[in-house]
Amino acid sequence: MDVIVMHKTTEKMPLVITTDQVDQIKKHADNVHWFETEAEVLASGVDAEVIFCWGGTGIPPETFCCQSKRLKWLNTFSAGVDPLVKSKIADLPITVTTAKGVHGRSMALTTLGYCIWHLRKFAEMRENQRNHVFKKLQGQEAIGKTLGIVGAGSIGSYVAQLSKAVGFKVIGVKRTVTQLENFDEMYSDKELDKALALMDFVVVLTPMSKETAGMFDESRFACMKKGAFFVNIARGGVVDQDALVRALKSGHLSGAALDATDPEPLPDDHVLWDMPNVFVTPHNSATSPFLVDRAVDQFCENLDNFRAGRPLFNIVDLKSL
Questions:
Q1: How many whole angstroms separate alpha carbon 264 and alpha carbon 281?
Q2: Catalytic residue among 283, 294, 301, 310
Q3: Residue 130 falls in the annotated catalytic set
Q4: Is 264 noted as a catalytic residue in this protein?
């Protein structure tokens, strides 16, 4: 079994694959070929049954995948697969798996940080510090407040765990209702509007797809409680950004934390940059020094499944998205 590992560390993609991690992968495959770019792969003439690469943002290895005579499986160490969906790879008869689950701890920590930033009025206190103003502010607690997770999957489970620990009531929305640990109530996606009306904090974790594009529009923001705080750590395209700005300007929403925007990055003159009740971060919620270790561990487990002819986990159907 041959495996291609393809990744180049850049400013936009600061994840680092180390020699030790490649050596770890070698223990689960016959031959492992490590390249930084698709151009290097194509120039080498190397082919393989498996490719391990980044597929969440940027340009996927479309040319290699379409030309390969041996490729059976592509594993991305991203949870999102937007570029893969839009590429010719979606039409190939290969299996695609994601790194679903490896980002949960870091994304949950980031999400809770946004919520605490809002509850404890850190933005106002920071502004007072800049202006040398000593003024006590009445911070809030999570007790008595409801945090809702739209797209209650593996990452949402981590968010729920931390949120319960600080006192939130946690409700979730997902396509198929199943009771999950640390969730007080669950709603189906058909009950989204009803669930939104119960949330003081709305956390968006839904994947980007034809069905979810622009799902948070004028009517959805109108369903939310007056004073609700909106958090998007999914994809910018699931939100009608103009409608969000209007909901913020009107005061219907008390604020927002946006780790994903559309476009990304925002234009320099975009109003969201300077709104005092908005926290914009550079698609950074999943970053962690442990991320690649977790993705490689998960990939190696699936490599063993692949080699033994067992079912792979984290399979995604690109055509359905």
A1: 10
A2: 283
A3: no
A4: yes
Put residue 236 in one of left, alpha, beta given phi > 0 → left and psi -120 to 50 → alpha: alpha
Say which of 28, 220, 235, 294 is annotated catalytic.
Answer: 235
The pLDDT profile of the chain, 321 residues, written as one tens digit per residue, is 999 999 988 777 778 899 999 999 999 999 999 999 999 999 999 999 999 998 776 778 999 999 999 999 999 988 888 889 889 999 999 999 999 889 999 999 999 999 999 999 999 999 999 999 999 999 999 999 999 999 998 899 999 999 999 999 999 999 989 889 999 999 999 999 999 999 999 999 998 888 899 999 999 999 999 999 999 999 999 999 999 999 999 999 999 999 999 999 999 999 999 999 999 999 999 999 999 999 999 999 999 999 999 999 999 999 887
Annotate 151-171 with b (16+ C-beta within 10 A) or e (fewer).
Answer: bbbebbbbbbbbbbeeebbbb
Strand intervals (E) in the chain: 2-6, 31-35, 50-53, 73-76, 95-97, 146-150, 169-174, 185-188, 201-204, 228-232, 253-258, 278-280
* 184 close to 209: Cβ distance less than 8 angstroms: no
256: β partners:
230, 278
Tell the burial category of 130 from Cβ atoms under 10 Å away from its Cβ (0-12, 13-18, 19+).
exposed
Which amino acid does the sequence have at 127?
E
| Catalytic residue selected from 124, 264, 270, 307 | 264
Is position 118 annotated as part of the catalytic site? no
- Do residues 275 and 230 touch, judged by C-beta distance below 8 A? no
| Alpha-carbon span 131 to 290, nearest angstrom | 38
- CB-based contacts of 118, cutoff 8 Å, min separation 6: 201, 229, 254, 255, 257
- From the DSSP assignment, how many helices (H) and strands (E) are in the chain? 11, 12
Tally of CA atoms within 13 A in the half-sphere of 179 that contains its CB: 2
